[in-house]
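User: I'm putting together a teaching handout on how multi-component assemblies are represented. Below are the sequence lines for each component of a complex, exactly as they appear in our records. Could you produce the 3D structure of the whole assembly as structure tokens, so the students can see both representations side by side? Please keep the chain order the same as the input.
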Amino acid sequence: MVIWIILLLMTAAAVMAVLWPLSRHRALTAEQLDPDTQFYREQIAEIERDRERGVLLASEAEAAKVEAGRRLLRSTGMTADTFAALGEPALRRRRAASALALSVIPIIALALYGAYGSPQLLTHPPKEQAEGQRGSLDLMTAVSQIEAHLAQNPQDGRGWEVVAPVYIRMGRIEDAVKAYEAAVRYLGPSPDRLANYGEVMVLAKDGLVSSEAQRVFEQAVALDSTSPKARYYLAVAAEQDGQFDKAKRAYGELLAASPEGAPWANVVRQRLEGLGAEQSVAGAQENAPQLGADDIARMVSGLAERLETRGGSPDEWARLIRSYAVLGQRDKAKAAVERARQVLAQDDDGVRTIDAMAREMKLIDAGP
Amino acid sequence: MTRKQRRLTLIGFAGAILAIALGLVLYAMNDTIVFFNSPADIQAKNVPPGTRIRLGGLVKEGSIQRGDDQQITFEVMDAQSEIRVHYQGLLPDLFREGQGVVAEGVLESATVFRADSVLAKHDENYMPREVADTLKKQGHWQGEANAAPKTQ
Amino acid sequence: MFVEAGHFALALALGLSLIQFVVPLWGARANDPVLMSVGRATSLAVFVCIAFSFLALTVAYVTSDFSVVNVVANSHSAKPLIYKISGVWGNHEGSMLLWVLILALFGAVVALARNSIPLRLQANTLAMQGAITIAFLLFILLTSNPFTRSVPAPAEGQDLNPLLQDPGLAIHPPLLYIGYVGFSVSFAFAIAALIDGRIDAVWARIVRPWTLGAWAFLTLGIAMGSYWAYYELGWGGWWFWDPVENASLMPWLAGTALLHSTVVMEKRDALKVWTILLAILTFSLSLLGTFLVRSGVLTSVHSFAVDPERGTFILGILILIIGGSLALFAWRAPLLKQGGLFAPVSREGALVVNNLFLATACATVLIGTLYPLALEVLTGEKISVGAPFFNFTFLPLIVPLLLLLPLGQTLAWKRGNFLGTAQRLYAVFGVSLIATMALFAFEYGGPVAAPLGIGLGVYLVLGSLNEIVTRSWSRGTPLSVAWRRAANLPRSTWGAVLAHAGVGLTVIGIAATAWGVEGLATIRSGERVKAGDYEARLERVMPRIEANYREDVAVFTIFRQGQELGSLESMKRLYVTRGMPTTEAGIMTVGLGQVYVSLGEVAADGSVGVRLYYKPLVLLIWIGALVMALGGGVSLMDRRLRIGAPARAKMAPSAAVPAE
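Assistant: Of course. Below is the structure of the complete assembly, with chains in the same order as your input.
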């Protein structure tokens, strides 16, 4: 509410800036009515002042005055009858100009601001964001302290383990990989450490479980066969290799072994659903070759292209976002969220669908 | 001198300067302009050795060899062919295997190029324009989605 | 909330500038002083609105408000404060906002200068400024809005391009933009004169300070950009004939021509039509510069935006403003009255020659810059027009101009005597010739260009100073009298002398680059790399961590002929947020020359590729530009410019000194 009053006051001030000179006509004297004459008169006075202060030589001042005087004469001769600031037509002109200012300025300002501004943000100032900032500042100092410490004691495995998740949050994935690697090297392998190490490797490859990462997860499972994270990624690896049955089985087992309400259960269930859907597509086409990663990628890019060129429903956008997220292409998923929000800006329900999907796919928080 | 004569002097003088400038420009156009080629263009157009060109493409993975005193050899490739490049000097910060590069220098033979300057992309989103266009034409371009500007 | 208010202020400014365009123009047609005076009030209001808007964006940057997309894309909470502020214009949207801010600032200053500009001229001028403001505000609001919000706000920004995290960036674009946009005032005055159909010496006198100021800032901006590229890009080059550099050089050349033709118009009421055309062309080239940089047509470090929609929009603005003004010119220029006569050999004649050379040189740069674009559009063939082209075409046009410069400066107005003038320069010719010969003898067999170029530079510096000497001293004059006379010479004369001497200094600095030496080697700690008399010994390479980057610092000790001069540091940085490496050259100033060390890769075994340059007298390139700008400033302070005291030849000799 306060902001609207402020914007209103700003508009009023802007309009006043135009109305004020228009309203001054009463104060005009005959001399001011001929501004050119006045201009040269003032110039002559200024030359006189300068001469008195000694800025100009007398001869220069004289010449300047003669010059200005000549122009004064010429301008009075020429404009005596042409300046028209009084009388009925002048009054009408002034009224028209006022009307123009009163209408054009608020209309243009409100129309453009309405189209491009974000007034809804004004009523809900993003308070939590300010706190987030303070947090990230503290984080930065903390990180640089840890880094300084680690530069001197590179074999401090615990330090590496502490800094690694922070790197992930800051988006420094490569550094996180190195940090976990160091942690594993100096603290020795443990199921959790290995699973985390593998996970960053996956993040670093945009969701692709490389054979290297796969070995790390297998090592983790060898140490602790229940490690959900490692098992999950092994299943993803199987899925990416096109071994859908194996992946399905692995997801199923993971779900069965998960405690009630485990945070990962939803993700696993979606994966499973996704697998089911793809298989039914594959099954529908008889003797169709098994869908490889390339085919999926092509289907997804087809969908993306269609949505981009011809548009589509919120559900279709949501599907695209999910596909990207499932394929591990988080960047593209995020871009799709942005794009969908733009395209569907008029459709509140649609935006809500997209936001829900983005939240579900954890695309909003940078953290894993 | 009359006004007319003065004007003619002026026009004559202006014409002379313009003619000189035009001559210089035309001569320089023939002599100093450097064409941009990809390795495939060099093969296709039969560019004669000794020609000064700009060579653009991707640095082939695993092709970089370093010698003494910053003598560097690497291969620039596109979809169809590749060419060996010799260069002595400091490589730009963003020179990487598998990334776009533009080298300017002289073609020694159909497969060897001696570069006197090497440019790489300036930041993560930037690929030398000529390289991007050529690769797009050859259907090798994949970086589009990542290279798109992040702001709307 | 502040951000939204800033956004709204920008929209308000658009409405106001529409009024600024329409009402004063109407007033001038209807001869209504009240309507005309609306121009003043609105241009002040537009400035206040845009300034507020800019302030709002700056506050968003300083407080790292990541709910603003622009801040997210170009800032980072760990960035030092100065780069948070300079980051405001380190990106496309913000730099366009800076552009209109400066435009509005100039409008406001024109509005405040009420006592030095006749009302009708002022009203028309402000209306034209309003028109330009409308175009650019629309461009910002519709295609490059810096106030777009992102919800929910990300926790951290993506940081500014590391190449731009440099004090140079804090200064370079504002200076350059003040220059570019300053020419919009000359342009607006020219259009106003065309609309009014009236133009005379008063017009020239009013316009000249604006042109002069814009020119001085553009000079500083170009010099600053050149020095920035020199130390930041790590190649040790100071001018690359890069299209973006050409984009700033072209308005400078045209602006320099404009400056000189305005002098002719002011003194002799001649060259009116040409001056108007130059004013239009100069600003058109400024706009073209903005277009080339902003549209992403040319990919280079400076292209922050690669977006065809924006390109099309700017192209539209360009066609509208340039095409419109040239059409107006073609329609109205024949109505302007021709002015005074002059002989071909005279100061006026010399200034015409100056204009011809500058305009032609500018045209060759324009051709070299646009030809590759045109060829690519027409044939698809890709070419690069580089330094060889420009050296071959530009230098033959500029060198004769420089050779004629001291002569022209010495010629009398209206009708000059070429031989008499040359006589006054005998001493200058002699000294320059001796200097050139001495340099040839001293360097035997070195590059030919260096002594010749330095000789030319010396000739320019002495030729300019000669002006002061011959005007204040003749044989038998006591030194104190001469000194007083020199001090009493008009400031504008001193300004011209300084600016021309600055050209000479720059020429010396450029010529001396031919003596530069360089060495390249892969070395380890304790080993040396050699370039001419200079050597650098690598002491150690050590890591260092700063808030938003990590770097490997190589410490070198520099020797000249075995004698230790001191030590310097070169860096190889990695900006973590963008994962982008940069090279920071280590520079040590020795007299007017510099030792410049650039690092290559740091190999795993601790060896480093190192390039060592010694560049004698290189600082003169930029010192010369500073002196040129200083000359502009001194000339600007000339009181007579403002009140327009005419200086006629019939007056007493001491006062007859033609203001330059």
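A couple of points students might notice: Chain C touches chain B through 58 residues (CB under 8 Å). Chain C has 21 helices and ten strands.
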